[in-house]
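Long-time lurker. I teach an intro course on protein structure, and each term I like to show students one example going from raw sequence to a predicted 3D structure in token notation. This year I'd like something fresh instead of my usual example. Would anyone be willing to generate the tokens for the chain below so I can use it in lecture? Attribution to the forum is fine with me.
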Amino acid sequence: MTGPTRTAWSTVPTEEERYRPLYARALGLRFVNPGGVLCFVFFEGAVALAVLLALAELVSWWAVPVLPLAVAVMVKLNDMVAEWVVRSAALVPEQERDRFRRQVEPVIGRARVPRTLPGVVVATEVLPGPSWERRPDPSERGPSVARGTARPGVNRDA
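-- Reply from a regular --
Happy to contribute to a lecture. Here you go:
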């Protein structure tokens, strides 16, 4: 067999492998490295959720073994996708990586700042003075109610 061995891509050193949670070791995770709490949530949390759903009769009792299995499959699939990303990134030559890093680095002081803020309307024409100095147009007001007149549905005696 030629090429790198399976453990050559592993991100977890072999001496630390025995200290990893059983869930991560059982799934053979190499690129995703969940801690103890996350492994607890993945397995025992999925079992507890399946039991609660089954007790509420939202799903059948088959969900109790199937839900943790489905979570384990998704975690393993996520680990495989992470492996593919790392391998494809390793195939990019160093020169291309340096060029990409230069293009991605922000240039401070050269960004254009928009004149408007989100949600703020900027008027381009000059308005005739502040709004409190202008007299409102009578046609803009609604029907006025004279002081002291009774409005329909309002009982002033109470």
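Some talking points for your students: Confidence is low (pLDDT under 50) at residues 3-7. The CA atoms of residues 106 and 112 lie 13 Å apart.
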